[in-house]
Amino acid sequence: MSAKGIRGNERTAGWIFVAPALIILGLFFVLPILMALWVSLTGWNGQGSPFTSRVPFVGLHNYTALFATDDLARQDFMTSIRNNAYYVLLVVPLQTVLALGLALVLNNRILKGKSFFRTAFFFPSVTSSVAISVVFLFMFANGGAINALLSAVGINGPQWFSDPRGLIHIALDRVGVHNAPAALADHGVLGLTWWDWLSGPSVAMCAIITLVVWTTSGTFMVMFLAALQNLPIQLDEAGMVDGANAWQRFWRITLPQLRPTMFLVVTLGLIGTWQVFDQIYVMSQGNPAKTTLTPAFLSYRTAFRDFDYGSGAAISFVLFLIIVLFTLLQRWLLRERRGH
Amino acid sequence: MISRRWAVAAVAAGALLATGACGSGFDENKSTQQSSGPASLQIMIASSGDAETTAVKDAAAMWAKSSGNTANVIPAQDIVQQLGQGLAGSNPPDVFYVDAARFADYASVGALEPYAQTMAGADAFVPGLKQSFTYKDQLYCVPKDSSTLALEINTDLWSKAGLTDADIPTTWDQLTSVAQKIKAKGITPMAIGDTRDRIGAFLVQAGGWWTSPDGTKATADTPQNEQALAYVQSLLKNGLAKYPKALDAGWAGEAFGKGKVAMTMEGNWIRGAMSTDFPNIKYTVKELPAGPKGKGTLSFTQCWGIAAKSKFKTQAQQFVQAMTTADQQLSFAKAFGVMPSRQDAQATYEQQNPDDAPFVEGAKYGQGPVNAPKMDSVLADLDAGLQGLQTGDPKAILQRFDKNAKTALGG
Amino acid sequence: MRTIFSRFFGYAILVFFGLVFLYPFVIQISSSFKTESDAAANPLSPIPHPFTTDAIERIFVGTGFPTWLMNSVLVTVIVVLARVLFCSMAGYALSRLRFRGRRVLFAGLLATMAVPPVVLLIPKFLVLNQLGIYDSYPGLIVPLLVDATGCFIMKQFFDSVPVSVEEAARIDGAGVFRTYWSVVLPMARPALITLTILSFSGTWNEFPHSLIAVQNPALFTLPRGLADLVSGSLGAGTQYPLKLGAALLATIPVAIIFVIFQRYFVRGAAEGGERG
């Protein structure tokens, strides 16, 4: 067979080889997005097909309603954005620091039995989010393990999943600010008062944050560990010769070399945390008082419970946009620094 | 060459699959094809517990056996969501429970078959309940049963707190004072569900309600309603009442059944739960204490809805007919504690269950749920506000409801 | 002296976090064998007192657990086999075969990977609905058959191995399919195992898809069934030993696979990392 024959064969073979993947991904990734884009422009109420002339076309109304109309839909959406923002703000740094810390300890040459601990730290991240949520629901019950631990050290634990107060509000309450200052309570932006925006994550959200940090740190630890093991040891030794202490060596030598992994971990963290859904569905369903409502869960609830599929689809596209924006922003920030 | 033909075939098959399958979905069936003969009915219920699930399953199996059809009872965990997906998928269950609070939503989008309009014997049902399932002057479905809220008292804890029958509260003031006595003994006095479906009773007792009687206007921000919420708030703040979640319970009845509280306010369904899950707790049922404007309670009802998209409407109607005979209603009442929705059966029920007199009494002055389409998210928001009542501002909760409801009701 | 101190310190950290990461599972296991009142009264105790298998028995007779388990096994087996086959084929073609449109396809694959799955909940429901496979086994299984990340991992793998062996087979006159089947696949064993492991844990734990693909309890998979058990409606009660036991049983298969194939999980995490 001539060389040309082999190449010619490859042309059709190539398409056949990718055909199953292409059909499935096309049908269940590309087509759905197009359909949802259409539905997000309509007022489909979930009866019959959304692709008939009887379904009202509303243009961009579902999108503008999320930002411009002063009603419940906007309030819910903005509340969900606020909740998720606090969630991201806490989860991403915490899980990154914890993962890096654990990886550094495990990378220490003088310790033995590390593989056991590596397994232990990694295991939670491969278990089912639903199953783990059940365990944490039990641990964070009012008479559960966490409060039993807290009371052992003399702290009266909160009622985790029924306490809608935000952490910042609680802290202000402690220092004597019991009610919202008028300047914050009477003015606001996008449907929430400044006081509401500045609530901090609720106690219930903190329980979910703990769970997520606990489950995802293992994966990121493995990434950091792989990166640490690939670092050339000579640099570190050179630092030792120069008389730098462990902290200086970590800060000046190890950390700069970990920048690509750090970038990756933070990016994956940002993408993942804006999508939190399973834990919310199982543990709180957005309660108490909507303080664990997130855009992903709100989009689901708006479509499947309130029959407002157009608005639900619009929320999910806005969420998509948020994720893309944050990824780009973060990429840009790290570029800037690289330039210095 | 052979492989090229394969490729073309594969791509063509894929394309056909996609377009062909889509095509079937694009046609809008004006009226669903009806099938006669033996039907296989899907019946989705929002069960109050194992007792109800078993009772309905048994009754359905009996009907299926005698009529030669099959009937599959699906207990839904979250009927609103599951039904929503079923309706959007043009594949709803044939028969399903419709809560009075959600009825208007389903009726307004055409999901329900208005079979009750022509159903024989529809006159036998309690008129007030039928009103809950009437949309634009059409009776869509017949009420399955009814229930009201009452005050349940754990008699052991009651006497442990040094209280007697004479202390049973009939007013708000008395309720506060017995609760204080119980609390002094280290017992949590009361569990109250953290939703409008419980707290709303206090509004009625204070002479207020969320909306105007015809359900077209939001009327939450009134002194009466504020007084009611302030009273509930005072109970919560002083530890005289707690929400179920604060007691590690899924609902108030569970906290009551586990002996964590001396009192609760739940409906007839608590009977079924107590006898199956907590048979050892001794308790008694009384009417809710009256507020400043007299007695008040909430009444709840569901109907047997038939899907407009069902293929077996005739058989579904026969099924509903069989489930709503006076005898069947009485046996449901016995199994899981709800009250019959037929006038003839209700009379028998009163004689058979003198202990349930407070529930039956409540039915005479009970307030039905807010019944208007598009209100669900507004009501859910209200519930969110009520969850935070302990530290929240009653007036702000009421004003927020009015503002949201106004948009939804379009007035 | 310093070494001893830092060694002690290192172990202290490891043991502390070891407890933090493992003790919840200890609580879960012990509580599954507790009575409900014992579980509520002694949430921290690792020893059930009294020991009872009531909860475990009720999981099998009182819930849909056996059905969920069967469905999960069925879905997982089919999906894992299909992903291994389809993703290795696609990865191979994208890496080795020269055909028009390859670059576009690869870019498309990367774009697909960038779409957050949660955003696809409503869209996927719409498609399943339109295709008429909502609330059925095909609806539950078919959308999961191919995973963009899996195809990407396979492509990366083929990029990293030398072509010489295949070239030899090709020159011997074997066609593309023969070469793929009898030369390439055996060679790709390590990558295929990684893919199998990732597909297994991904499918076994998959929750949102089953939430929007089915509503009939007879079609529930384990995570879906578990979620419904937990967010149970009025009257379901807390029943912690039962719920924890069900969650435990759902975790066991993944735990076993994890212990045996841990290095492939590690590789999976690292390879998932490379795409950044």
Please, could you describe this protein's structure?
The complex is a heterotrimer of chains A (340), B (411) and C (276). In chain A, 69% of the residues lie in helices and 1% in strands. Chain A has 16 helices and two strands. In chain A, a hairpin with a 2-residue loop joins strand 1 and strand 2. In chain A, helix 1 packs across helix 16 (309-339), helix 11 runs antiparallel to helix 12 (246-257) and helix 15 runs antiparallel to helix 16. Chain A is globular and about 75 Å long. The mean pLDDT of chain A is 85. Chain B is α/β, with parallel strands linked by helices and 411 residues long. Chain B has two domains: 11-146 and 301-363, Periplasmic binding protein-like II (D-Maltodextrin-Binding Protein, domain 2), CATH 3.40.190; 148-299 and 374-408, D-Maltodextrin-Binding Protein, domain 2 (3-Layer(aba) Sandwich). Chain B has helices at residues 2-26, 50-67, 79-88, 100-108, 127-132, 155-160, 172-184, 196-205, 223-237, 252-257, 270-277, 313-323, 326-336, 343-352, 357-365, 376-387, 394-409, and strands at 40-45, 70-75, 95-99, 134-135, 138-139, 143-154, 188-191, 261-267, 283-286, 297-306, 366-367. In chain B, the strands form two sheets. In chain B, strands 1, 2, 3, 6, 7, 8, 9, 10 and 11 form a nine-stranded mixed sheet that branches. A two-stranded antiparallel ribbon of chain B has the order 4-5. In chain B, strand 4 and strand 5 form a beta hairpin. In chain B, helix 13 (326-336) crosses helix 14 and helix 16 packs antiparallel against helix 17. The N and C termini of chain B lie far apart (71 Å). Chain C folds into two domains: 1-52, no CATH class; 66-275, MetI-like (MetI-like fold), CATH 1.10.3720. In chain C, helix 4 crosses helix 8 (148-160). Chain C is mainly α. The longest helix of chain C is centred in the first third of the chain and has 32 residues, at 65-96. Chain C has 15 helices and no strands. Chain C starts with a helix and ends with a helix. Helix content of chain C is 74%, strand content 0%. At the A-C interface, helix 1, helix 3, helix 4, helix 5 and helix 6 of A face helix 1, helix 2, helix 4, helix 5 and helix 6 of C.
